[in-house]
Design goal:
Blueprint: H1 2-21, H2 26-37, H3 47-51, H4 53-69, H5 74-79, H6 81-87, H7 90-107, H8 111-121, H9 126-138, H10 147-173, H11 180-184, H12 186-212, H13 216-237, H14 245-259, H15 261-288, H16 292-320, H17 328-337, H18 343-348, H19 351-355, H20 360-389, H21 396-401
Length: 402
């Protein structure tokens, strides 16, 4: 396993360098390294590493979300509240309805199987969107209107919404899980409880850091460890209550920033260093989940479905931004930012097939196809348009003085 980790690190860094040299997002290079090194192409990564792949990806995602939380200013969140709420569910709903209506005729599956597929595909990729938004915040692009912050918060809630609908639909397929209306209530419950648990945890950590005056490295270790425990807590209580631990992880960072900005910046700098390796792990291991042969079986019909669904999603995203002070290019940037899919699709794409859903193999094939098409397209689109279409704003401290 150690050899595989070393190989992933070296090849991931090299691919990142090559792609950035030709003005493409480095994460694309890491994704392709994962695809090539994974079990479905050259099979270089050792099976022992693939067995713990899900845990390693989760830790990398935690580092990513903590960094995101440490960039979420409350005043900015207040400004983007309504569009963030709409973006968390409207685009996914538009895309989900389109897939549910079209997939039976295109793929020959039932409407319920189509709905399950719909709410696998409807999730935006946190792994692609979050690091690119953090990068834009660091460059002060679109920060005055809170555009990167809007997309950080909305994309996280989008994942909660989609996964809970997916779980509900699986329960319906197997005749378990109770009444649909009761399962749908878990969506606000999960979001609210995630925010509350994250806020309480953040305040506790703030007081611990205040009392013991820990060094930045120790604070970083503690905050990552506590965030991992939140993920464990979600698993432990999921049969009793719904709680979004990932949303809670972001809130922990937000509270630390709100209560002690100096410490937040110190922790953020340490996390940025941890992210250098975590980013390689996340994208290479996500890429390793992609079976190109499976994607090929979806064929033209699957491709038509993915791109048609993206049109529906884009309409939903644009409608969600109605009433904001964003200009046309800024709205279009937000629409493009909701294109990439990777993390959720890689994580749950195979679940229906493993559970015995009749069209599970088709669902997996289309999920893989969506990653191959949309992750590169979205990442390139965000990188190119973010630099050109979002205004270069002064840093927050300078804006406060003016």
């Amino acid at each position: 396993m150690a050899v595989s980790l070393a190989l992933i690190a070296l090849l991931g860094l090299f691919a990142n360098y090559l792609f950035e040299k030709v003005k493409l997002p480095g994460l694309l290079g890491m994704l392709f390294v994962g695809i090539l090194c994974g079990p479905f192409v050259f099979d270089i990564i050792q099976p022992e590493l693939l067995k713990v792949s899900a845990d390693l990806r989760m830790i990398a995602l935690i580092v990513l979300l903590l960094r995101a939380g440490l960039e979420l200013r409350r005043d900015t969140l207040n400004r983007v509240g309504r569009p963030a709420l709409l973006l968390s569910c409207v685009p996914a709903t538009f895309e989900g309805v389109a897939i549910t209506l079209l997939a039976p005729s295109l793929l020959g599956i039932t409407y319920l199987e189509a709905a399950i597929l719909a709410f696998i595909l409807s999730a935006v990729s946190l792994a692609v969107v979050v690091p690119l938004m953090i990068n834009l915040i660091g460059k002060n692009r679109g920060t005055e209107k809170g555009i990167p912050t809007l997309l950080l918060s909305a994309s996280s809630a989008d994942n909660v919404f989609v996964i809970l609908i997916f779980t509900t639909l699986l329960g319906m397929y197997f005749g378990t899980g109770g009444p649909v209306w009761l399962k749908l209530l878990e969506i606000p419950e999960s979001i609210i409880l995630g925010i509350i648990v994250g806020a309480v945890t953040g305040y506790i950590l703030y007081h611990v850091f205040e009392r013991y005056k820990l060094r930045a490295t120790k604070m970083t270790i503690i905050i990552i460890s506590v965030a991992i425990m939140l993920i464990w807590l979600e698993e432990a209580v999921k049969t009793k209550v719904a709680m979004s631990a990932l949303l809670g992880v972001m809130v922990v960072g937000l509270i630390i920033l709100e209560k002690t900005e100096i410490r937040a910046h110190k922790i953020s700098r340490k996390l940025a260093k941890v992210w250098i390796f975590a980013e390689i792990l996340l994208f290479v291991l996500v890429g390793a989940q992609v079976d190109i042969k499976v994607a090929w079986t979806a064929g033209i019909a699957g491709s038509v479905l993915v791109f048609t669904a993206l049109i529906a999603r884009s309409i939903g995203a644009y409608i969600s931004l109605a009433g904001t002070d964003f200009n046309f290019r800024e709205k279009l940037f937000c629409v493009i930012s909701y294109i990439p899919k990777a993390t959720v699709q890689a994580a749950i794409g195979a679940v229906p097939m493993e559970m015995g859903v009749e069209g599970g193999d088709i669902i997996l094939a289309v999920a893989v196809l969506s990653i191959l098409f949309t992750a590169p397209l979205g990442a390139i689109g965000i990188t190119l348009t973010g630099e050109k279409w979002l205004s270069k704003d002064p840093p927050p401290e300078k804006r406060l003085k003016t």
